[in-house]
Design brief:
Elements: H1 3-6, E1 10-13, E2 22-27, H2 29-35, E3 39-45, E4 66-73, H3 85-94, E5 106-109, E6 113-114, H4 116-123, E7 126-130, E8 135-136, H5 140-147, H6 156-159, H7 161-164, E9 172-174, H8 177-188, H9 225-229, E10 231-233, E11 236-238, E12 248-250, E13 258-265, E14 268-275, E15 280-284, E16 296-300, E17 304-305, H10 307-321, E18 328-331, E19 336-337, H11 341-345, H12 348-360, E20 366-370, E21 375-377, H13 378-382, E22 393-397, E23 402-404, H14 408-415, H15 418-428, H16 430-437, H17 446-471, H18 474-479, E24 485-486, H19 489-514, H20 524-533, H21 543-550
Parallel strand pairs: 5-7, 6-8, 7-9, 14-18, 17-19, 18-20, 20-22, 21-23, 22-24
Antiparallel strand pairs: 1-2, 2-4, 3-4, 10-11, 12-13, 13-14, 15-16
Length: about 550
């Protein structure tokens, strides 16, 4: 927490009564001036004390007529007390990345696949499976002979959709070959005709300027797919971020705490990843070969990366990048990784590292966006921080988003403990100040002072959480350079469309420049700087104008 703010903030109670809760925290003019850019404030009129005995138009000399309400806490220049401390970890993680593959492969399982046939499908990464076509290594008859008893009843029991869709081998399951071919054609519609060619854009059928009208309710679980595709709420349709009816989800039955898919934004194909915020179930199948094995259902909390969902995220990023060449839109709402003993044993650390590996190799623009009423915390921030791939990644946040090392309650337990709460009481509560001054004279007993502190404690304890929350606001993220810009949800569709169009076109031109003879020894950053030098300086921040200029080249 910012030590400068902790020493001088003041509290405005609702109706000057601590029992009615906190209205806001504020600073005096002197403290605001001393702190400078370390805090964002807005000036509000100080409410009159309804319990004051003086005339309503008169105030005590030491009570200002206006308050500098604290909107967000940035902190002093040398105070690294929030999300910026995570950037160093992101840079370290980025150095571990390796490898790159540039080919698109897709396999369709239309009949039984055994042994190497199953491996070929898996090595192709993208798999569409017909419902009656198993992927197996050994047939059930051979396995029964090996075991000496008739344990398995069919090959589908070994490698049918219940198994392969549930473990992430099969991306899609279809009922027949016609549906299978249709799904493959749909998938191919997102893929460029050549490796690293521009994405195949379709004519705009859903206006880019229209707002995303679906808005999640704070604190209430919801289907995150509605952020992308929209949906009906109380009989009224609310539009999502993507073009209507273009979102296709892949791997829906595996690692359900993450949703991945492909869709279109203004006709432009994009890969999308969004966090599931609800608690979901994970089915663990029984093995008939083990008499003690029984089917189980495990519950997985939303907003958390588990081993399977971390692997699913990394695999989706790799698929979008390798061969498909899709811009990536990542709607982030993670509190962190599941670090329990079971999940550590099941390699959550390894699969979380895979996310970094794939992001460092990404060759298309990436937008990481924290949607309204969403948050990114701790290790989850580290693996999607923009410094992992600064040439391609940009991070944005909605005006109600949050980001920090821990949740406010957790930070308060560490940085605003009981001694800090008591200091705040002695500095703010006038009655406690009077009692402390008169304790030595015997007018007030120490027991009375302690009783007063105990009475105030329930009202003052939430101050620490609010103070911590003020450090997590998007204004601070922008001020610290970890977020590029605050983008309101209603403007996200238009903003990200033009940003992706511009960045995609810029990368096309930069790639052409780097591949030319004139670019010998030129870095990506230098090539991009040369491109920006040709754009009007006063309009460099206008993505639409810049794209229209670049599209003419």
């Amino acid at each position: 927490l910012s030590e400068g703010i902790k020493r001088c903030f003041r509290v405005q109670w609702n109706e000057y009564d601590p029992a009615k809760g906190i209205a806001y925290l504020w600073l005096t003019d002197k403290d605001k001036e001393a702190l400078g850019s370390a805090v964002v404030t807005e000036q509000v009129s100080a409410p009159l004390d309804p319990n004051a005995e003086d005339d309503e138009d008169e105030r005590e000399e030491d009570e200002p007529a206006t308050h500098n309400k604290i909107v967000a806490i940035i902190g002093l220049d040398k105070e690294e007390c929030g999300v910026e401390s995570l950037q160093g970890a992101g840079r370290i993680a980025a150095e571990t990345s390796i490898a790159n593959r540039e080919i698109f492969t897709l396999g369709y399982c239309t009949a039984r696949n055994i042994g190497i046939g199953s491996y070929v499908l898996r090595l192709g990464q993208r798999v569409v499976q017909q419902r009656d076509a198993p992927l197996i290594l050994t047939g059930y008859v051979a396995l029964n002979k090996l075991l000496g008893t008739n344990v398995y009843e069919s090959n589908l029991q070994l490698g049918g959709p219940e198994v392969m869709a549930g473990n992430g081998v099969s991306h899609l399951v279809v009922n027949d070959d016609f549906e299978g071919v249709l799904k493959i054609v749909q998938w191919l519609s997102f893929v460029p005709k050549e490796v690293w060619a521009p994405p195949p854009c379709l004519p705009i059928t859903d206006p880019v300027e229209r707002p995303a009208t679906y808005m999640p309710t704070p604190g209430k679980p919801y289907d995150p797919r509605m952020l992308l595709a929209g949906g009906h709420v109380d009989g009224v349709h609310h539009a999502g971020l993507l073009d209507q009816d273009t979102f296709i989800e892949y791997l829906p039955d595996w690692a359900k705490t993450v949703v991945i898919g492909r869709g279109r934004l203004g006709g432009m194909p994009v890969g999308v990843i969004v966090t599931e915020n609800r608690t979901v179930d994970k089915s663990i199948l029984a093995d008939p070969a083990n008499l003690e094995s029984k089917p189980q259902t495990a519950m997985q909390a939303g907003q958390v990366w588990f081993p399977d969902s971390a692997y699913k995220t990394a695999q989706a990023i790799k698929d979008f990048n390798t061969g498909e060449g899709l811009p990536l839109l990542l709607l982030a709402n993670w509190r962190g990784f599941s670090g329990g003993r079971k999940d550590m044993f099941e390699e959550v650390l390894k699969f979380g590292s895979f996310i970094v590996d794939e992001l460092t190799q990404y060759k298309q623009p990436i937008i990481v966006y924290i949607p309204p009423h969403c948050e990114v915390r701790g290790g989850a921030w580290v693996v999607i921080d923009a410094t992992i791939n600064p040439a391609m990644m940009e991070m944005y946040a909605a005006d109600s988003a949050r980001g920090g090392v821990l949740e406010p309650a957790g930070i308060a337990e560490i940085k605003f403990r009981k001694p800090e709460v008591v200091k705040a009481m002695l500095r703010i509560d006038k009655q406690l100040q009077w009692m402390s001054m008169n304790e030595a004279s015997g007018v007030v007993r120490n027991e009375d002072i302690e009783a007063r502190k105990a009475m105030l404690a329930p009202y003052y304890n939430p101050i620490g959480e609010l103070l911590c929350d003020l450090h997590d606001r998007p204004q601070r993220m922008v001020a610290k350079g970890v977020v590029k810009k605050v983008v309101p949800w209603a403007e996200a569709r238009t903003t990200f469309y033009w940003r992706l169009k511009r960045r995609t076109r810029e990368e096309e031109l930069v790639s052409a420049l780097l591949n030319s003879r004139a670019a010998e020894g030129l870095t990506h950053a230098e090539a991009l700087a040369q491109l920006h030098a040709k754009l009007p300086a006063e309009q460099l921040d206008d993505d639409r104008i810049c794209y229209e200029i670049l599209a003419q080249d």
